[in-house]
């Protein structure tokens, strides 16, 4: 899925920018993230109606949700500490058929 590849590429660049993880750990993390998102989106992907399921596919970090469950799963499965990702305190990624948006 192109959209998952775009999300993984974007997050990989953000994590790399934080300079807290070695390249091999970053690669392991993004591989696990790609698998986790593919599994999660299965059955929740509607190309004919891209906004359907949008909230379910959203990756969100904010003061109410300090750790996104999909990112946390990828961390646990790759042996990476969530805090070492160095992500901003607020981040929202909408992953829809044909479009990925970030705020």
From TrEMBL:
InterPro entries: Anti_prolifrtn, BTG, BTG-like_sf
Organism domain of life: Eukaryota
Pfam families: BTG
Originating organism: Goodea atripinnis
Name the record gives this protein: Protein btg3
SMART domains tied to this protein: btg1 (SM00099)
Annotated family: Belongs to the BTG family.
Domain Anti-proliferative protein: 1-103
């Amino acid at each position: 899925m192109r959209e998952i590849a775009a999300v993984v590429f974007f997050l990989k660049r953000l994590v790399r920018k934080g300079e807290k993880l070695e390249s091999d750990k970053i690669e392991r993390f993004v591989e696990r993230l790609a698998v986790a998102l593919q599994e999660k989106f299965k059955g929740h992907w509607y190309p004919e109606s891209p906004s359907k399921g949008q909230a379910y596919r959203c990756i969100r970090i904010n003061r109410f949700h300090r750790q996104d469950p999909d990112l946390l799963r990828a961390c646990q499965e790759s042996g990476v500490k969530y805090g070492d990702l160095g992500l901003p305190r607020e981040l929202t990624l909408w992953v829809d058929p044909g479009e990925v948006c970030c705020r």
